[in-house]
C-alpha cells in the first residue's frame, strides 16, 4: 500500500515550507471566499474540481393564529400555508445570496425548522459553490441542496446533479370524538381512527406537495428525504407531516458506477474530526 | 523491581500465577489485540491498582485565590499509589509495559472525604525477549489505545510512561464591593486570569517534571481536565495527563494514508 | 490585540526552558505532524477572565420604559405602531439594534486570550500553533466568563520564524490535506454578532398569534422585525469575519445562532462564527478523488 494507491507522492515537508513562505507578505489580491463546509467536505469538493465561494443563509418566520390549531375541520390551511411561505421565502433569500456571488449552487444546507403555536420559523445556512474557474450562470439554474458536500461529490461522480429543494407539509385537524364514543372507548384498546385518518390525510397532501415541487424543478427523483410527523405538542387535536429533500436528475445518458472497494477497518472508533466541534 | 510485590494484597497472587501459565485476559478489543501483535507485543493480562484515599480538609480564604497544597498532594499521591500498584502487578507478570491505562476516581456513599483511585490497563510483553522497560527499570505505562500504540511505534517513537500533574486551586469569591464597583461593564478581571493561568501551569509543569525524570523526548496526547469533585464550585482540580515518549528510531514506517470516502452509514 | 499582556507565571518559565515538548495532539495527529516535517515544541495557551453581563447597558435599566437604542453605533432599525393606540400596555414602537458593546467585549476577551497564546508559542520558539481548541466557559462566580485557548506550538525546520506565529484549528490529516490542496494556514478567525430585538405591537401580536384581531389579517404573514434581526445578525458576523481576512479565505467555518428571550418581546439574537483563515500558495490542482469504500463488518 506504499504510495497509497492512486495518490501522487508529494514531498510534503517541501510543500509545507512553500506554504509558510507565502505567509511573509500580504495576501494576493483576489476574491475572498468564506465557507462553512467542514474541511473534510471541502476536500471532497476539491477533488471534484469545485470550490466554495461564500457562506449564504436564508431565514423566514411566518405568523400563525393559534386559534386555528384548536378548532376546525380538515386541513389547517393557515398553518400549512405558513410552513410553505416560510420555506419558500428562506430558500428564495438563500438563492438570491448565492446568485449574487456567481455560484452554481448551494450545498450542505442545514435546515432548522420550528413549528410553534404562533409561528413557523425556517433557518437555512449553507455554502455557495461552483466549478473552479467558471462564471456565473443564469440565476434560475442555481440549485439549493441540503446534501452534504460529500454526498454532492459522490452523486456528481455517479452522473447525477441536484436541482433544488422540494418541500411539502400539511397540518390536519383530527376531529374530536363524540362524548359517547370517548366513554365507550375508555377502557378498551382501540385504534383512535380519527387520529389515524388525520395523519394519513396530512401525509398524503404533504407528499403530494413535495412531489409537485420536485416535478416543477424538472427532477426525476428526490433523495435523502427527511420526514417529521406526529401530533403537535401544543395543540391536542392537530397532527402534522412535513417532508423535504433534494431533487435530482441524471446529467448524461447513463448512471456511472463508482465501484466501491471493500475494506476492513481496525479502528474501533472512526473519529471524524470536525472543525466546527470545538469542545 | 519485578519481585517487589510486598505491597499487593494476597488475593492477587493466585490470579497473577494463572496468568503466568500462559492464559491472558485483556480488555483490548480484537482490533487492538491484532494491532499490538502487529508491532511484536503479546498481551499478558489485565492489571490494576487501586487506592482508597482520605483527602484531608484545608481551609480556604474566601477572597483569595490560592493553591490548596494539601489537597493537591492527596490527589497526586492517591493516583500515584494506584499507578504504582498497577505497575507492580505488571512487573510481577514480567511485562514490559501497560497499554490502555485508565485512571478513574470513584466516590462512595460511606466515606464523605474518601475516594477510590483506580488504574486499569493491559500488561504487554515484547515477543523478541528484548526488554522495553523504561529508564527506571519499570514497565512503561500509557493511556494509548491499541491503535494509537501501533501508530506511535510506526513513527519511531516509543511510550515511556503515563505522566500527570495536578493542582487543586481555590478561586476567590468576589466581594460585594468589587462586584458593584464594576457593574455594567464587561471588563477583564486580571486577578482571575492570572489565577486560572497559574493553576493550569502548575499542573502542566508537574507533568513535565515527571516526563523529564523519564528522559522523555516529549509528551503526546496531553489532556487538561477540570473537576470540582465534591468540594464546591470554587475549588477546582486541574489535572493534566499525557504519555511521555522517546524517539527510538529515525525510521518512520507509516504509509501515507489513503484518502477514502466511506459508504457505510 | 491584547494591550495588556498577562505576565507569564513563574512556573511557565521553567516549563518552556525545559528541553522536551508537550503536545495536545493525539497520536494520529502527532504522526501527521511528523509526516509534514513539523516539529512540536510545546503546548501553548492563553486565558482571559472577564466580568460579564448581558444587560451591561440599556436592557436592565431601560426595560419597561423605552427601548435602548443608538448611540453605540452599528445597526439600528425602528418600527412604528400602525394602530395609533395610546396605552401603557401597547408597545407603540419597537427597535432592532446591534449591541456593539457586547461584540466588542467578546472580541476583546477572545483576542486577549489568543494573543497570549501566541506570545507563549513565541516564547517556545514556535512558528505556528496547530490544533487550536477554544473554550468560552462560565465560571462558578456568576457573571464571569473565561476565554481559554490552547494548541500545540510547532516549528518548521529550515524556515525562518515569522514575526507573529500562524495558527489554525486544524491538525492531523486535515492539515496535511489542506496543504496538499494548496492552502497555508494564516490564523484562526472568530467573530460574534449580537442583535437585540425590542418588539413593537405588530411583532408581539404576530409572535403571540393575536394578529387576526390587531393585525387585521388572518392569512399567515411574515414577521418582518424578527426576519430583519435574524438576517442582520448573520450578515454582521459574516462581515466582521471578513474584515479579519485581509484578502485571504475563510474555510471550515461554523456559524451558530442563539436566540435568547429575556422577557416577552425582549430578545437577543447572537451569532458566533469560527473558522480558519487560509492563504492559497499555489494554483488550483484538484486532489485525487477519494476512494469509495464499504466496510466489511
How is the topology of this model organized?
The complex is a heterotrimer of chains A (279), B (265) and C (297).
Chain A: H1 12-21, H2 39-47, E1 50-63, H3 67-70, E2 74-75, H4 77-100, E3 105-115, E4 119-131, E5 143-144, H5 149-157, E6 160-173, H6 179-185, H7 193-216, E7 221-231, E8 238-250, E9 261-263
Parallel strand pairs in A: 3-5
Antiparallel strand pairs in A: 1-4, 2-6, 3-4, 6-8, 7-8
Helix pairs in contact in A: 2-5
Chain B: H1 11-20, H2 30-38, E1 41-54, E2 66-67, H3 69-92, E3 97-107, E4 114-126, E5 140-141, H4 146-154, E6 157-170, H5 176-181, H6 190-213, E7 218-227, E8 235-247, E9 260-262
Parallel strand pairs in B: 3-5
Antiparallel strand pairs in B: 1-4, 2-6, 3-4, 6-8, 7-8
Helix pairs in contact in B: 2-4
Chain C: H1 10-17, E1 21-22, H2 27-36, E2 39-51, H3 59-62, E3 76-80, E4 93-98, H4 100-123, E5 128-138, E6 144-155, E7 166-167, H5 172-180, E8 183-198, H6 201-208, H7 211-214, H8 224-242, E9 249-263, E10 266-280, E11 291-295
Parallel strand pairs in C: 5-7
Antiparallel strand pairs in C: 2-6, 3-4, 4-8, 5-6, 8-10, 9-10
Helix pairs in contact in C: 2-5
Structural class estimated from helices and strands of chain A? alpha+beta
**What fraction, in percent, of the residue positions of chain A are helical?**
25-40%
User: How many H/I helical runs of chain A?
Assistant: 7
What is the largest interface, and how many residues per chain? A-C, 82 and 82 residues
Total number of beta strands of chain C: 11
Order of strands in the sheet with the most strands of chain A? Answer: 1-4-3-5
The CATH fourth-level homologous superfamily of chain A: Hypothetical protein apc22750. Chain B
> Remind me, CATH topology of chain A?
Translation Initiation Factor IF3
Largest sheet of chain A, described in full?
4 strands, mixed
Strand content of chain A: 25-35%
* Tally of helical segments of chain C: 8
Radius of gyration of chain C: 24 Å
Amino acid at each position: 500500500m506504499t504510495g497509497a494507491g492512486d495518490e501522487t507522492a508529494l514531498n510534503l515537508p517541501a510543500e509545507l515550507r512553500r506554504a509558510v513562505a507565502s505567509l511573509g507578505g500580504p495576501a494576493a489580491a483576489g476574491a475572498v471566499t468564506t465557507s462553512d463546509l467542514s474541511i473534510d467536505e471541502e476536500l471532497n469538493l476539491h477533488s471534484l474540481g469545485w470550490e466554495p465561494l461564500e457562506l449564504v443563509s436564508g431565514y423566514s418566520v411566518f405568523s400563525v393564529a393559534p386559534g386555528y390549531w384548536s378548532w376546525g375541520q380538515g386541513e389547517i390551511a393557515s398553518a400549512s400555508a405558513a410552513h410553505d411561505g416560510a420555506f419558500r421565502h428562506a430558500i428564495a433569500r438563500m438563492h438570491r445570496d448565492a446568485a449574487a456571488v456567481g455560484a452554481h449552487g448551494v450545498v450542505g444546507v442545514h435546515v432548522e425548522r420550528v413549528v410553534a403555536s404562533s409561528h413557523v420559523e425556517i433557518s437555512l445556512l449553507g455554502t455557495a459553490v461552483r466549478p473552479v474557474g467558471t462564471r456565473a450562470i443564469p440565476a434560475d439554474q442555481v440549485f439549493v441542496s441540503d446534501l452534504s458536500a460529500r454526498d454532492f461529490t459522490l452523486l456528481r461522480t455517479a452522473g447525477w446533479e441536484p436541482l433544488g429543494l422540494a418541500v411539502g407539509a400539511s397540518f390536519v385537524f383530527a376531529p374530536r370524538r363524540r362524548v359517547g364514543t370517548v366513554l365507550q372507548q375508555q377502557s378498551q384498546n382501540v385504534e383512535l381512527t380519527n387520529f389515524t385518518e388525520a395523519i394519513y390525510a396530512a401525509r398524503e397532501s404533504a407528499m403530494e406537495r413535495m412531489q409537485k415541487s420536485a416535478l416543477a424543478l424538472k427532477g426525476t427523483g428526490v433523495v435523502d428525504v427527511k420526514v417529521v410527523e406526529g401530533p403537535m405538542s401544543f395543540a391536542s387535536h392537530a397532527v402534522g407531516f412535513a417532508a423535504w429533500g433534494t431533487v435530482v436528475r441524471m446529467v448524461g445518458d447513463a448512471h456511472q458506477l463508482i465501484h466501491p472497494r471493500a475494506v476492513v477497518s481496525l479502528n474501533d472508533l472512526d473519529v471524524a474530526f470536525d472543525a466546527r466541534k470545538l469542545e | 523491581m519485578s519481585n517487589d510485590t510486598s505491597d499487593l494484597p494476597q488475593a492477587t497472587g493466585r490470579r497473577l500465577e494463572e496468568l503466568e501459565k500462559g492464559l491472558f485476559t485483556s480488555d483490548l478489543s480484537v482490533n487492538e489485540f491484532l494491532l499490538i501483535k502487529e508491532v511484536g507485543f503479546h498481551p499478558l493480562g489485565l492489571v490494576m491498582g487501586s487506592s482508597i484515599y482520605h483527602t484531608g480538609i484545608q481551609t480556604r480564604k474566601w477572597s483569595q485565590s490560592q493553591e490548596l497544597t494539601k489537597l493537591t498532594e492527596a490527589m497526586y499521591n492517591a493516583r500515584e499509589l494506584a499507578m504504582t500498584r498497577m505497575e507492580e502487578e505488571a512487573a510481577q507478570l514480567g511485562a514490559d509495559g501497560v497499554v490502555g491505562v485508565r485512571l478513574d476516581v470513584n466516590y462512595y456513599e460511606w466515606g464523605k472525604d474518601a475516594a477510590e483511585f483506580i488504574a486499569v490497563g493491559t500488561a504487554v510483553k515484547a515477543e523478541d525477549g528484548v526488554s522495553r522497560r523504561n529508564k527506571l527499570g519499570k514497565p512503561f505505562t500509557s493511556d494509548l489505545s491499541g491503535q494509537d500504540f501501533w501508530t506511535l511505534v510506526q513513527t519511531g517513537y516509543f511510550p515511556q510512561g503515563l505522566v500527570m500533574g495536578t493542582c487543586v486551586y481555590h478561586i476567590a469569591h468576589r466581594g460585594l464591593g468589587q462586584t458593584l464597583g464594576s457593574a455594567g461593564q464587561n471588563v477583564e478581571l486580571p486577578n482571575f486570569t492570572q489565577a486560572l493561568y497559574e493553576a493550569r501551569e502548575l499542573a502542566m509543569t508537574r507533568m513535565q517534571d515527571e516526563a523529564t525524570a523519564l528522559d522523555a523526548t516529549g509528551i503526546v496526547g496531553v489532556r487538561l481536565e477540570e473537576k470540582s469533585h465534591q468540594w464546591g464550585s470554587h475549588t477546582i482540580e486541574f489535572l493534566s495527563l499525557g504519555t511521555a515518549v522517546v524517539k527510538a528510531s529515525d525510521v518512520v514506517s507509516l504509509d501515507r494514508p489513503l484518502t477514502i470516502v466511506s459508504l457505510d452509514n | 490585540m491584547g494591550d495588556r499582556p498577562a505576565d507569564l507565571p513563574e512556573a511557565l518559565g521553567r516549563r518552556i526552558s525545559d528541553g522536551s515538548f508537550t503536545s495536545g495532539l493525539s497520536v494520529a495527529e502527532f504522526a501527521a505532524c511528523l509526516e509534514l516535517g513539523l516539529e512540536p515544541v510545546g503546548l501553548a495557551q492563553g486565558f482571559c477572565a472577564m466580568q460579564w453581563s448581558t444587560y451591561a447597558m440599556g436592557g436592565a435599566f431601560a426595560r419597561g420604559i423605552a427601548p435602548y437604542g443608538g448611540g453605540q453605533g452599528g445597526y439600528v432599525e425602528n418600527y412604528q405602531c400602525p394602530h395609533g393606540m395610546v396605552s401603557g400596555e401597547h408597545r407603540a414602537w419597537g427597535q432592532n439594534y446591534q449591541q456593539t458593546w457586547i461584540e466588542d467585549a467578546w472580541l476583546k476577551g477572545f483576542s486577549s486570550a489568543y494573543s497570549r497564546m501566541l506570545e507563549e508559542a513565541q516564547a517556545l520558539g514556535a512558528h505556528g500553533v496547530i490544533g487550536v481548541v477554544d473554550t468560552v466557559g462560565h465560571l462558578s462566580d456568576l457573571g464571569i466568563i473565561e476565554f481559554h485557548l490552547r494548541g500545540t506550538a510547532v516549528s518548521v525546520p529550515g524556515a525562518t520564524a515569522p514575526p507573529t506565529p500562524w495558527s489554525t484549528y486544524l491538525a492531523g490529516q486535515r492539515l496535511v490535506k489542506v496543504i496538499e490542496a494548496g492552502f497555508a494556514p494564516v490564523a484562526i478567525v472568530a467573530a460574534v454578532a449580537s442583535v437585540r430585538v425590542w418588539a413593537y405591537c405588530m411583532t408581539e401580536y404576530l409572535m403571540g398569534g393575536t394578529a387576526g384581531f390587531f393585525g387585521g389579517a388572518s392569512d399567515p404573514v411574515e414577521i418582518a422585525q424578527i426576519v430583519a434581526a435574524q438576517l442582520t445578525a448573520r450578515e454582521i458576523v459574516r462581515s466582521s469575519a471578513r474584515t479579519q481576512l485581509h484578502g485571504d479565505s475563510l474555510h471550515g467555518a461554523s456559524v451558530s445562532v442563539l436566540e435568547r428571550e429575556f422577557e416577552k418581546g425582549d430578545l437577543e439574537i447572537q451569532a458566533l462564527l469560527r473558522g480558519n483563515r487560509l492563504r492559497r500558495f499555489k494554483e488550483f490542482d484538484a486532489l485525487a478523488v477519494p476512494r469509495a469504500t464499504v466496510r466489511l463488518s
